[in-house]
């Protein structure tokens, strides 16, 4: 059952990658994409250049960012013990976005190519810590408190971004606006190489925590009784979430709800155990984002829609449905 | 070292209230100790102090002859298990997965998991989602998880609260058999009759300290219980077993 899930996800992802690389203003047959990928370059140098300079960086970026967002969502839900905790819902993404906007407006470059991720990480971590300390009481996170904390943090972060947009010059403003909509259109290999190590490290560390996250779902005290160092687990997970979200946000803007939809669907198929949930959410997130990127380019001919808009369009109603369901099951707003 | 846990002169203040004062309590290998007392006497806090959930403001807590602070979380988990009063689960794991969580301090061992599921009559529920079980079934699944931990000291906070007669008896017989294997079992109980019938030793708490501690037939007397519970209580010997039977005084109808 579980290996079938992984196999299905992997096959679908591979198919979506081939399809996504073939579709665009300059269509390239899927067969040529496949051939180029496995060592026999296309006879058309134009097709070859399009694939390797434009399409593949974009597809790989979708995979990396999707995987990171899926895992960050699952991890956050595990730590909060709440299926509604998601980086964009509770304001972690917009917190990181404030940091990233700062580097755009003031053209900060003191850490080289890592400047944006680093500043985004600092702000994202601050937002995560705020949510965590405000939304919890007595070791549990109530749905309504969590959502309202998210509303507050999103509002403050929104004000920060608005102020930075106001401060910035014409070019910075345009950059901020489009970046806020979430887009993979500008992906380049240099961006991919910046995000990839952060993503791999984040996902690998999250996988190490999987078993302990299972125990945490019993509650903090029972987890401690079973030998889990709960404080270390919580802090480690929060830093990981902030790291992964800010890495993703730095280059693609705010792409919401991936971390909400994907882990939820995986839980419905394979159960809530984190040893399956985390890797499957990585694959599922990658698949969702590659497919969404394909949709962003394919829905209207010659128009490259912002991908964050698409994920929010699907994720928003899904979030509402989940909220209602959780509310019914918990018997009230608990 | 035989499993043993104790606390010496422990005092705890919570929210400005003195909840425990100079508490001395020992649970030793081979015995079931029932901790009883009226609401708010500090029973659950006493258990929480032994479990390491609540820090003592004064006094010390010992596990197997060493201060509790000196054990690592994992070492502690291998030596004592805790059944909480309120059972929660954030995600819909199956019963088998929940019970398997009890093996976390050790290597996975499916034989142990199967055995404790049998012991708590939960084998038929293995594949069911924990969150869809009734309160009593959840309580038994949680007990199975605690038993799977194979710890020498068991701290059980009101394990029978949600259970019917059959399963209450099952749980306390399980506690007794754990003690017979050389484990130390502390069980917080509300039902004095249960404590009288199953415990080797009973400790009565009132106002944050122990007011009586000893074998059931010595400790559970009408006078003491009437005073502690502020309600007249009658105690008589069971005609067949000789164990004390405790009932609240009820006037003739």
From TrEMBL, chain A:
Signal peptide: none annotated. GO terms for molecular function: transmembrane transporter activity. It comes from the Bacteria. Its main location: membrane. The keyword Transmembrane helix applies. It is a multi-pass membrane protein. It is found in: Cell membrane. GO terms for cellular component: plasma membrane. One of its GO terms (biological process) is siderophore-iron import into cell. Belongs to the binding-protein-dependent transport system permease family. FecCD subfamily. This is Iron complex transport system permease protein. It comes from Lentzea albidocapillata subsp. violacea.
TrEMBL record, chain B:
InterPro entries: AAA+_ATPase, ABC_transporter-like_ATP-bd, ABC_transporter-like_CS, P-loop_NTPase. It comes from the Bacteria. One of its GO terms (molecular function) is ATP hydrolysis activity. The keyword Transport applies. Keywords: ATP-binding, Nucleotide-binding, Translocase, Transport. Residues 5-232 form the ABC transporter domain. Coiled coil: none annotated. The keyword Nucleotide-binding applies. PANTHER family: HEMIN IMPORT ATP-BINDING PROTEIN HMUV (PTHR42794:SF1). This is Iron complex transport system ATP-binding protein. It comes from Lentzea albidocapillata subsp. violacea.
